[in-house]
Amino acid sequence: MKSGIPGDESRWDDLVCILCKAAELEYYYGDNSGRVYLRCPGCGLVFVPPGMRPGPEEELGRYRMHRNSPDDRGYRSFLERLAGPLDSLLAGASRGLDFGSGPVPVLSGILADRGHVMALYDPFFARGLSVFDREYDFITATEVLEHLHEPGRELERLWSVLRYGGYMGIMTEPLPGRDAFAGWHYRRDITHVTFYSEKTFRWLCDQFKAEKAYRKNNVLILKKI
Q: Concatenated DSSP letters for 33-76?
């Protein structure tokens, strides 16, 4: 059932949650462009439905505008919000996968400088699927989850190559309250199509048998148990 969705609700009849696959969805917000945001009451995910998301070429054009240089101290400081706590949890030199590494993999460089062996994957800039043929001590996904069109499928794939006792480091802005959503800067990036609430993170822990090893602001580190 789809509740409260304006317009022709029949076009959403076959739509399920892109994370937990629940069929019960509700209207969350609609902006002036006609873009609709749906919410899953089950896992708390808010997402833009198919047909309203940018295509690959539009996405790539947006990503090529990013200026994330390893020489940018501000950007490195931003990434340290995850790199520092993650490094402190790791037992010495470890093998990691930087998922969604982008055109300039700054985070992997920071972690490599601390002795970790890094592999890269990005659907636009580092597309080698062989990285999923082995296990990792840790996986990072910094400013990535909000771009995923199929987060359930992608997170299951990542979790399958994370060893038991390993860590998944996530950076994404947590979903604010409904009243703040309209003016939220994070929502206004057209490539941001998936938004995660604290309820979503609890669902992920239950689904993947994980525990929170670290949580602060926009950083979450899960441990596979």
A: TS-EEEE-TTT--EEPPTTSSPPHHHHHHHHTT----TT-HHHH
Question: What's the CATH code of the domain at 18?
Answer: 3.40.50.150
Can you give 128-162 as a three-state secondary structure string?
CHHHHHCCEEEEEEECCHHHCCCHHHHHHHHHHCE
Chain position carrying tokens 């996405």: 59
Spell out the per-residue pLDDT of the chain, length 225, in tens.
456 666 555 667 789 999 999 999 999 999 998 999 999 999 999 999 999 999 999 898 878 777 677 889 999 999 999 999 999 999 999 999 999 998 889 999 999 999 999 999 999 999 999 999 999 999 999 999 999 999 999 999 999 999 999 999 999 999 999 999 999 999 999 999 999 999 999 999 999 999 999 999 999 999 999
Instruction: For residue 111, give the H/E element and its range.
Output: helix 106-112
Beta bridge partners of 224: 210
| Local structure of 7: helix, strand or coil | coil
pTM of this structure: 0.93
**Total number of domains constituting the chain:** 1
